Give the backbone structure.
Amino acid sequence: MGQSIPLRKVVATNLQAVTRLWIRNGLKLSTVAIYRRWIRAFQRYCGVQRLRELQHLSLAGVRRFVEWYVRKRRIRRAPAHASARSALYAWSGALTAL
């Protein structure tokens, strides 16, 4: 029987590959850092809520994530939503490109 690759390793590998793709395509390092922060927060949310990340990587899923995140962090919703939406949209597109 073949060995399966642990999900954390796959996620970390994808994040590294996507980071390289973004940098190669000219994204600023500061933008990449912000995107990575949102991606990790979204992944933690999916883990806590026992959600499948790719199934919730949608506009509705991002809205639910942001509502959870702003309640947890006690921050303003509008800027958090705009930033998270951009980051997770870029994440979704980059995963598709891999």
Summary: The longest helix spans residues 29-49.
